[in-house]
Amino acid sequence: MRTLYLDCFSGISGNMFLGALLDLGFPESHLRQELAKLPVNGYELIIKKVEKQGIAATYLDVKTGFFGQRRHRHLPDITAIIDGSDLPAAVKEDAKKVFLRLAEAEAKVHGTTVDKVHFHEVGAVDTIIDIVGTVLGLHWLGIGRVYTSKLRTGSGFVKCSHGRMPVPAPATAELLRGIAWEHGEIAKELVTPTGAALVAVFSAGSGGVPDGFISDTIGYGAGSWDLEIPNVVRAVLGEAAEAQAQAEYLVIEANIDDLNPQIFPHVMDRLFAVGARDVWLTPIIMKKGRSATRLSVLADSAAFPAAAAAILAETTTIGMRYYPVNRLEAERRTATVETPWGEVRVKVSAVKGQTVNAAPEYEDCRKLAAEHGLPLKIVWQKALSLAWPLYGRTDGGEEQ
């Protein structure tokens, strides 16, 4: 599986993460093209090569005008901006997961609800660009898993809208629950809430290089500070060993017989937003012949507390059961095929380097079908036929 390892010896922020992905080969032209689909304006995207203590890195900065002036925004405001774009559905969903995680951390720290959180520093357009851009880069590079080193947060105090806060700031510390971190020797804020939220959502593990990881490309994303150490995050791209494909997960279940069925789709969305790998519903018959629904959730241990809390908050159940399961995953990557109507991404899975399945990306096919006035099934079938040459290949075709 295509795997990214982030070496965060100088912390991580949103623009450092995105800069590192650009340094790995994520095209600047594609980033600008996709960000233009967001219904925002009044900003200038600056991308340049810099040197930090002798290390060449990519630096990204967002210069904002009136729209980007920092003001209060709520989660629904940011969700509306993302949903109002023509970005791929998967990119929208992942970006919203990051903002939801930010909102949950702020809500817990300030004793309020997710929808009432004032985002302050993280509600500005530059943070929207950093998060959406990072998600775009992860998708374009075909990254299936992200691992991180122990994060160095820095130390001392940082000025926030609520006053001077200890480093890591309370919301950042909340986001880093379950993630290995240390202060380090630098008396500055090195891990920002945006950087912490991205790691919290996408990291499959922290503390060191995963066993059997083989690297092939290295990129560096620069931060704004000039420090006595290189202020960069090192992004190492490579392949995870086959042993990494088997991991322990939890299945969480609850039998529910008194919830309005119209609420279940919302419950499923909430569970996916807090990190569930899969959610499904099964009709069942309970005692005394009562019809009910079994809600089942597949999640890793890090997502269990948030998933359990969401089930208790959003459904009528007063309890649930959970048990460990193992999941064996095929190696996954993304290739592209050129149809008569445009490019379609294809999700390719393999076992021991041998391709065993290829599935055209639904959203790409749907978009081309709409643009050219064609039945969706025609575009999908053509993309699938063009994917057949990928079978028998060990490289999965053109990397994206």
Automatic annotation (TrEMBL):
Keywords: Lyase, Nickel
Enzyme Commission identifier(s): 4.99.1.12
Keyword Ligase: no
Catalytic activity: Ni(II)-pyridinium-3,5-bisthiocarboxylate mononucleotide = pyridinium-3,5-bisthiocarboxylate mononucleotide + Ni(2+)
Signal peptide limits: none
Pfam families: Ni_insertion (PF01969)
Function summary: Involved in the biosynthesis of a nickel-pincer cofactor ((SCS)Ni(II) pincer complex). Binds Ni(2+), and functions in nickel delivery to pyridinium-3,5-bisthiocarboxylic acid mononucleotide (P2TMN), to form the mature cofactor. Is thus probably required for the activation of nickel-pincer cofactor-dependent enzymes.
Membership in a protein family: Belongs to the LarC family.
Protein name: Pyridinium-3,5-bisthiocarboxylic acid mononucleotide nickel insertion protein
